[in-house]
Amino acid sequence: LLFMLDTKVHNKKDVETIVSNVPIVGEIPLVKKKEQQIFENPNDHSILAESFRILSSNVKYVLPPKKNNGNVIFCTSTVKGEGKTYISINLSLALSSINKKVLLIGADLRNPQIHTFTSRDKNSTGLSSYLHDTNLKWQDLLINGFKDHATHDVLLSGAIPPNPASLLTNGRFKLLIEEAKKHYDYIVVDTAPTILVTDTMLISHLADVNVYLVKAGFTDKKLLGFSKELNASKKLSNMAYVLNNVGSSKSYGYGYNYGYG
Prior knowledge:
Layout: H1 2-5, H2 12-18, E1 24-29, H3 47-62, E2 71-77, H4 84-96, E3 102-106, H5 127-132, E4 152-155, H6 164-168, H7 172-180, E5 186-190, H8 199-203, E6 209-215, H9 221-232, E7 239-246
Parallel strand pairs: 1-7, 2-5, 2-6, 3-4, 3-5, 6-7
Protein backbone atom coordinates (compact mmCIF):
# COMPACT_ATOMS: atom_id res chain seq x y z
CA LEU A 1 0.00 0.00 0.00
CA LEU A 2 2.88 2.38 0.82
CA PHE A 3 4.47 1.73 -2.57
CA MET A 4 1.17 2.31 -4.38
CA LEU A 5 0.49 5.62 -2.64
CA ASP A 6 4.06 6.95 -2.88
CA THR A 7 4.43 9.01 -6.07
CA LYS A 8 7.88 10.49 -5.35
CA VAL A 9 11.11 9.82 -7.22
CA HIS A 10 13.52 7.86 -5.01
CA ASN A 11 16.31 6.57 -7.21
CA LYS A 12 17.93 6.55 -10.64
CA LYS A 13 15.68 3.76 -11.88
CA ASP A 14 12.54 5.84 -11.24
CA VAL A 15 13.87 8.54 -13.58
CA GLU A 16 15.09 6.13 -16.27
CA THR A 17 11.72 4.34 -16.36
CA ILE A 18 9.87 7.54 -17.27
CA VAL A 19 12.55 9.36 -19.30
CA SER A 20 14.82 6.82 -20.97
CA ASN A 21 16.46 9.11 -23.55
CA VAL A 22 17.96 11.74 -21.22
CA PRO A 23 21.25 10.86 -19.46
CA ILE A 24 21.68 11.05 -15.68
CA VAL A 25 25.08 12.66 -15.15
CA GLY A 26 25.21 12.77 -11.37
CA GLU A 27 23.79 11.45 -8.11
CA ILE A 28 24.37 13.75 -5.16
CA PRO A 29 24.09 12.17 -1.68
CA LEU A 30 22.06 13.58 1.18
CA VAL A 31 24.25 15.75 3.45
CA LYS A 32 22.51 16.68 6.69
CA LYS A 33 25.09 19.01 8.24
CA LYS A 34 24.79 22.47 6.68
CA GLU A 35 28.47 23.32 7.25
CA GLN A 36 29.43 20.34 5.06
CA GLN A 37 27.17 21.25 2.12
CA ILE A 38 29.59 23.53 0.25
CA PHE A 39 32.73 22.42 -1.61
CA GLU A 40 34.80 25.20 0.02
CA ASN A 41 38.15 23.37 0.15
CA PRO A 42 39.47 22.57 -3.37
CA ASN A 43 41.38 19.60 -1.90
CA ASP A 44 38.38 18.17 -0.06
CA HIS A 45 37.90 14.40 -0.38
CA SER A 46 34.56 14.05 1.39
CA ILE A 47 31.63 12.11 -0.08
CA LEU A 48 30.07 15.41 -1.17
CA ALA A 49 33.26 16.63 -2.88
CA GLU A 50 33.78 13.35 -4.72
CA SER A 51 30.18 13.26 -5.94
CA PHE A 52 30.55 16.75 -7.40
CA ARG A 53 33.88 15.83 -9.01
CA ILE A 54 32.07 12.93 -10.69
CA LEU A 55 29.27 15.29 -11.77
CA SER A 56 31.70 17.86 -13.22
CA SER A 57 33.51 15.11 -15.12
CA ASN A 58 30.27 13.65 -16.52
CA VAL A 59 28.96 17.08 -17.56
CA LYS A 60 32.02 17.48 -19.78
CA TYR A 61 30.95 14.40 -21.75
CA VAL A 62 27.52 15.84 -22.59
CA LEU A 63 28.87 19.22 -23.66
CA PRO A 64 28.96 19.63 -27.45
CA PRO A 65 32.35 19.55 -29.23
CA LYS A 66 33.77 22.92 -28.33
CA LYS A 67 35.28 25.80 -30.10
CA ASN A 68 37.90 27.86 -28.31
CA ASN A 69 35.69 29.85 -25.93
CA GLY A 70 33.90 28.88 -22.69
CA ASN A 71 31.15 26.37 -21.99
CA VAL A 72 27.77 27.55 -20.67
CA ILE A 73 25.98 25.29 -18.17
CA PHE A 74 22.43 26.13 -17.05
CA CYS A 75 21.09 24.56 -13.85
CA THR A 76 17.32 24.41 -13.50
CA SER A 77 14.48 22.32 -12.06
CA THR A 78 10.72 21.94 -12.32
CA VAL A 79 9.67 23.50 -9.02
CA LYS A 80 11.23 25.40 -6.12
CA GLY A 81 13.11 23.36 -3.52
CA GLU A 82 14.82 20.73 -5.68
CA GLY A 83 18.32 22.12 -5.04
CA LYS A 84 19.35 23.88 -8.24
CA THR A 85 21.21 26.70 -6.42
CA TYR A 86 22.99 24.16 -4.22
CA ILE A 87 24.02 22.15 -7.29
CA SER A 88 24.99 25.28 -9.27
CA ILE A 89 27.34 26.49 -6.54
CA ASN A 90 29.01 23.15 -5.89
CA LEU A 91 29.32 22.25 -9.58
CA SER A 92 31.02 25.61 -10.24
CA LEU A 93 33.36 25.07 -7.27
CA ALA A 94 34.20 21.53 -8.42
CA LEU A 95 35.19 22.92 -11.83
CA SER A 96 37.31 25.69 -10.28
CA SER A 97 39.03 23.14 -8.00
CA ILE A 98 40.82 21.78 -11.08
CA ASN A 99 42.15 25.27 -11.92
CA LYS A 100 39.50 26.17 -14.46
CA LYS A 101 38.30 29.76 -14.65
CA VAL A 102 34.64 29.69 -13.62
CA LEU A 103 31.89 32.31 -13.46
CA LEU A 104 28.76 31.56 -11.42
CA ILE A 105 25.73 33.70 -12.38
CA GLY A 106 22.56 34.03 -10.31
CA ALA A 107 19.89 34.32 -13.00
CA ASP A 108 16.89 33.36 -10.85
CA LEU A 109 15.82 36.97 -10.50
CA ARG A 110 12.52 36.17 -8.78
CA ASN A 111 13.89 34.09 -5.91
CA PRO A 112 17.67 34.63 -5.63
CA GLN A 113 19.50 32.28 -3.23
CA ILE A 114 23.22 32.34 -4.05
CA HIS A 115 23.80 35.28 -1.67
CA THR A 116 22.79 33.07 1.29
CA PHE A 117 25.97 31.03 0.75
CA THR A 118 28.16 34.16 0.71
CA SER A 119 28.57 37.09 3.08
CA ARG A 120 26.71 39.47 0.77
CA ASP A 121 23.29 41.05 1.22
CA LYS A 122 20.30 39.98 -0.87
CA ASN A 123 20.03 43.46 -2.41
CA SER A 124 23.70 43.76 -3.35
CA THR A 125 24.26 45.16 -6.84
CA GLY A 126 24.16 42.29 -9.29
CA LEU A 127 22.70 40.92 -12.53
CA SER A 128 19.37 42.77 -12.31
CA SER A 129 21.22 46.09 -11.99
CA TYR A 130 23.44 45.30 -14.99
CA LEU A 131 20.45 44.29 -17.14
CA HIS A 132 18.61 47.49 -16.26
CA ASP A 133 21.46 50.02 -16.32
CA THR A 134 23.34 50.22 -19.62
CA ASN A 135 26.11 52.21 -17.95
CA LEU A 136 27.10 49.32 -15.69
CA LYS A 137 29.73 46.76 -16.63
CA TRP A 138 29.16 43.22 -15.35
CA GLN A 139 32.90 42.84 -14.67
CA ASP A 140 32.64 45.56 -11.98
CA LEU A 141 29.92 43.61 -10.12
CA LEU A 142 31.85 40.35 -9.64
CA ILE A 143 32.69 39.07 -6.17
CA ASN A 144 34.84 36.24 -4.86
CA GLY A 145 32.43 34.48 -2.53
CA PHE A 146 34.69 31.49 -1.79
CA LYS A 147 38.16 32.59 -0.71
CA ASP A 148 39.94 29.27 -1.33
CA HIS A 149 38.85 29.21 -5.00
CA ALA A 150 41.05 31.81 -6.67
CA THR A 151 39.73 31.15 -10.19
CA HIS A 152 36.04 31.37 -9.20
CA ASP A 153 33.92 34.53 -9.60
CA VAL A 154 30.28 35.16 -8.69
CA LEU A 155 27.73 37.52 -10.21
CA LEU A 156 24.85 37.72 -7.73
CA SER A 157 21.23 38.17 -8.87
CA GLY A 158 20.86 41.58 -7.24
CA ALA A 159 17.64 43.21 -6.06
CA ILE A 160 14.41 41.54 -7.22
CA PRO A 161 13.07 43.50 -10.23
CA PRO A 162 9.37 43.84 -11.21
CA ASN A 163 10.02 42.64 -14.78
CA PRO A 164 12.52 39.71 -14.81
CA ALA A 165 11.41 38.25 -18.16
CA SER A 166 11.81 41.51 -20.08
CA LEU A 167 15.18 42.19 -18.45
CA LEU A 168 16.54 38.77 -19.42
CA THR A 169 15.47 39.26 -23.04
CA ASN A 170 16.59 42.87 -23.62
CA GLY A 171 19.88 41.71 -25.16
CA ARG A 172 22.14 42.53 -22.20
CA PHE A 173 22.16 38.98 -20.80
CA LYS A 174 23.15 37.52 -24.16
CA LEU A 175 25.93 40.11 -24.39
CA LEU A 176 27.14 39.15 -20.90
CA ILE A 177 27.31 35.45 -21.85
CA GLU A 178 29.16 36.14 -25.10
CA GLU A 179 31.72 38.34 -23.35
CA ALA A 180 32.15 35.94 -20.40
CA LYS A 181 32.86 33.03 -22.77
CA LYS A 182 36.01 34.84 -23.88
CA HIS A 183 37.39 35.01 -20.33
CA TYR A 184 36.11 31.86 -18.56
CA ASP A 185 36.38 28.13 -19.18
CA TYR A 186 32.92 27.54 -17.69
CA ILE A 187 29.92 29.77 -17.02
CA VAL A 188 27.44 28.12 -14.62
CA VAL A 189 24.02 29.80 -14.51
CA ASP A 190 21.47 29.26 -11.73
CA THR A 191 18.07 29.78 -13.41
CA ALA A 192 14.41 29.85 -12.39
CA PRO A 193 12.18 26.74 -12.06
CA THR A 194 10.61 25.89 -15.41
CA ILE A 195 7.01 25.06 -14.47
CA LEU A 196 6.37 28.32 -12.60
CA VAL A 197 7.71 30.98 -14.99
CA THR A 198 9.02 31.25 -18.56
CA ASP A 199 12.32 32.98 -17.63
CA THR A 200 14.53 29.93 -18.18
CA MET A 201 13.01 29.02 -21.56
CA LEU A 202 13.55 32.57 -22.81
CA ILE A 203 17.32 32.25 -22.37
CA SER A 204 17.84 28.47 -22.66
CA HIS A 205 19.18 28.78 -26.23
CA LEU A 206 22.33 30.35 -24.76
CA ALA A 207 23.21 27.14 -22.87
CA ASP A 208 25.51 24.40 -24.14
CA VAL A 209 23.92 21.96 -21.69
CA ASN A 210 20.89 22.20 -19.39
CA VAL A 211 21.45 20.38 -16.09
CA TYR A 212 17.98 19.47 -14.77
CA LEU A 213 17.51 18.79 -11.06
CA VAL A 214 15.38 16.00 -9.62
CA LYS A 215 15.25 15.62 -5.82
CA ALA A 216 14.85 12.16 -4.29
CA GLY A 217 11.95 11.94 -1.87
CA PHE A 218 10.63 15.33 -3.05
CA THR A 219 10.02 15.44 -6.81
CA ASP A 220 6.75 13.86 -7.94
CA LYS A 221 7.09 11.33 -10.75
CA LYS A 222 4.37 13.14 -12.72
CA LEU A 223 6.63 16.20 -12.94
CA LEU A 224 9.18 14.15 -14.90
CA GLY A 225 6.70 14.19 -17.77
CA PHE A 226 6.96 17.98 -17.86
CA SER A 227 10.75 17.96 -18.17
CA LYS A 228 10.51 15.13 -20.73
CA GLU A 229 8.25 17.31 -22.88
CA LEU A 230 10.61 20.30 -22.57
CA ASN A 231 13.41 18.16 -23.93
CA ALA A 232 11.31 16.57 -26.70
CA SER A 233 10.07 19.97 -27.90
CA LYS A 234 13.65 21.36 -27.83
CA LYS A 235 12.61 24.12 -25.41
CA LEU A 236 15.49 22.79 -23.30
CA SER A 237 17.96 21.18 -25.67
CA ASN A 238 20.89 18.96 -24.66
CA MET A 239 19.38 18.20 -21.27
CA ALA A 240 20.90 15.99 -18.56
CA TYR A 241 19.43 14.98 -15.20
CA VAL A 242 21.08 15.22 -11.79
CA LEU A 243 19.49 13.27 -8.95
CA ASN A 244 19.87 15.23 -5.72
CA ASN A 245 19.39 14.10 -2.09
CA VAL A 246 20.05 10.43 -2.83
CA GLY A 247 19.72 8.27 0.27
CA SER A 248 16.97 10.37 1.85
CA SER A 249 14.54 7.45 1.84
CA LYS A 250 15.81 4.68 4.09
CA SER A 251 12.51 2.78 3.78
CA TYR A 252 13.46 1.76 0.26
CA GLY A 253 16.70 0.17 1.36
CA TYR A 254 18.58 1.87 -1.45
CA GLY A 255 22.05 3.11 -0.55
CA TYR A 256 25.01 4.73 -2.28
CA ASN A 257 28.67 4.49 -1.32
CA TYR A 258 31.38 6.56 -2.96
CA GLY A 259 34.18 4.82 -1.03
CA TYR A 260 36.09 1.60 -1.54
CA GLY A 261 35.32 -0.27 1.65
